[in-house]
Amino acid sequence: MNKVLSFVNQKGGTGKTTATINVGAGLALKGYKVLVIDIEPQSNATLSLAIEPSEIKKSMYDVLIDNVHISDIIVPTSTENLSLAPAKIDLSNSSVNLADVSHNQMVLKEAISPIKNDYDFILVDCPPSLDLLSVNALAASDGIIIPVLCDYLSLEGLKQLIDSINRIKEKFNPDLRILGILPNMVDYRRNLTNDSLSLIRKNFKDKVLKTEVRVCVSLAEAPSYGKTIFSYAPASTGGEAYKKLVKEVIKRSKKL
Amino acid sequence: MNKVLSFVNQKGGTGKTTATINVGAGLALKGYKVLVIDIEPQSNATLSLAIEPSEIKKSMYDVLIDNVHISDIIVPTSTENLSLAPAKIDLSNSSVNLADVSHNQMVLKEAISPIKNDYDFILVDCPPSLDLLSVNALAASDGIIIPVLCDYLSLEGLKQLIDSINRIKEKFNPDLRILGILPNMVDYRRNLTNDSLSLIRKNFKDKVLKTEVRVCVSLAEAPSYGKTIFSYAPASTGGEAYKKLVKEVIKRSKKL
Ligand SMILES: Nc1ncnc2c1ncn2[C@@H]1O[C@H](COP(=O)(O)OP(=O)(O)OP(=O)(O)O)[C@@H](O)[C@H]1O
Ligand SMILES: Nc1ncnc2c1ncn2[C@@H]1O[C@H](COP(=O)(O)OP(=O)(O)OP(=O)(O)O)[C@@H](O)[C@H]1O
Ligand SMILES: [Mg+2]
Ligand SMILES: [Mg+2]
């Protein structure tokens, strides 16, 4: 396959990190070789995989700013076939440090190219912004997954996000595709959820994934044990949803 | 009073915008003259107050980048005594545009100083990051309010955030104080919430506000009607919580 997928949304708290970790783990459990790349200064993907950022010597910061080879920072995780290129807090200075670098939107793409064929999937967890780090992820990706909440502010942001993605696609990566919009924290008891879901499906049609991930507290608990949903609570509604999502991601990746 | 308060947290989706709008409205209803400043590129505070960002001619972007006087962009809202300095999507380029400006951390403080005495409270809604825009808000503030969710990833981020705030305080604003950490989307039925709450109160002691805002769907519905909680559902648990929070903010602001 050799696909690079980014989890992007400038709206905060929509489930980007949760989706990156659990889709990554689900693909790894099916035998695919997966690398998760964490480019979030708050290093949530790194923390969720039970790796303490302060104990890491070199991180994605060193790869993007000091030209360290990405294979020098990759670490194994507790899930077989799932590796991680960790982040640290110093990533928050990267926009400033990369400001003077020419083609500073392509730094991540260049860093990934020597290892792209070593993995079936490379998943990039992005910060809640459309700054230089997220633009790098979009420039390096084959497909993007956009987790959204079913509320007013998230929906408003979605139109803006799709416009920005199309601009970045034209400038830096014409082959970039939206693999899917992922409705997350769905609660069918709330009118707001049902109204928003029908609006999303009406406006964005087949760009919206069939899988809807319901609110499931196990998904919020799992990171504090450093576990993915598959090792923490595989039979929960969260576990079932992510099993389904992984199948849909595989199917849609083949069309990228 | 003449206090500037910023709502800050680099973790996404913790309730910064919701708290800014509803604390602002609550203070305005008590007769205080309040200005909300939106410096989030996704302009969520502007949207929540029923102002369409695309119809705004000049925004905080023009104030920060082109030296437009902030009083030229201030608009009234549907709540008496509550005004807004709106944001637009072009704010997402501000870190790059401000990179070459000397003392670029103080641009917001300078923009606010001519009008600071016209308002009892100026509330700044920040994006989910600690980039230059958020640093500007911290440099311009008397106090900060940190909305947090009661989950693992939010708690991990809180320690990092407090460290970063102390560094910014030493460099740019020695008088800056944490007015309070606001537990948000509290759900007493979840173990994760109760465990997190006792951890937050143990680690951060009197920095944590007494008011806890419970999960309340009215808070998520109100922005889609362009209303604050006080005009949409004042008797809801969200409305009651924000009434209590406003009283606590007034009390703590007197000590700043
Ligand atoms: N379906 C779900 N049900 C319940 N909790 C969830 C679900 N998905 C995510 N969460 C929880 O919601 C919180 C926000 O999710 P997450 O951190 O993955 O979002 P994010 O988009 O990566 O946030 P940020 O914008 O800060 O990067 C986390 O505590 C996570 O555990
Ligand atoms: N106590 C609450 N109960 C229920 N929903 C809430 C509560 N507080 C906030 N919300 C909803 O949660 C979502 C996230 O809140 P909000 O947008 O205010 O967070 P934020 O920190 O400003 O996000 P961002 O990081 O993207 O700026 C919104 O849809 C909001 O309406
Ligand atoms: Mg995240
Ligand atoms: Mg916000």
Low-confidence stretches of chain A: none
Anisotropy-based shape of chain A:
globular
Q: Give me the oligomer status.
A: homodimer
Give the number of helices of chain A. Answer: 11
**Element-by-element helix/strand order of chain A:** EHEHHEEHHEHEHEHHHH
Kindly name the structural category of chain A: alpha/beta
**What strand line-up does the widest sheet of chain A have?**
3-4-2-5-1-6-7
Mean pLDDT of chain A: 95
Largest interface, with counts of residues having CB < 8 Å to the other chain, equals: A-B, 37 and 37 residues
Quote the distance from N terminus to C terminus of chain A: 10 Å
Strand content of chain A: 5-15%
Number of DSSP strand runs of chain A: 7
Ligand types = adenosine-5'-triphosphate, magnesium ion
Radius of gyration of chain A: 17 Å
Largest sheet of chain A: 7 strands, mixed
- The helix content of chain A, as a percent range, equals 40-55%
Summary?
Helices cover 42% and strands 14% of the residues of chain A.
Structural description of this entry:
The structure is a homodimer of 256-residue chains. By secondary structure, chain A is α/β, with parallel strands linked by helices. Chain A has a seven-stranded mixed beta sheet with strand order 3-4-2-5-1-6-7, with helices on both faces. Helix content of chain A is 42%, strand content 14%. Chain A has eleven helices and seven strands. In chain A, strand 3 (75-76) and strand 4 (82-85) form a beta hairpin. Chain A has helices at residues 16-29, 44-48, 60-66, 94-98, 107-112, 132-140, 152-172, 191-204, 217-221, 229-232, 237-253, and strands at residues 3-7, 34-38, 75-76, 82-85, 121-125, 143-149, 177-184. The longest helix of chain A is centred in the middle third of the chain and has 21 residues, at 152-172. The radius of gyration of chain A is 17 Å and the shape is globular. The N and C termini of chain A lie close together (10 Å). At the A-B interface, helix 2, helix 7 and helix 9 of A face helix 2, helix 7 and helix 9 of B. The structure holds adenosine-5'-triphosphate (2 copies) and magnesium ion (2 copies). One adenosine-5'-triphosphate sits between chains A (12-18, 40, 44, 128, 184-185, 213, 215-216, 219-220, 223, 238) and B (11-13, 128, 151, 153).
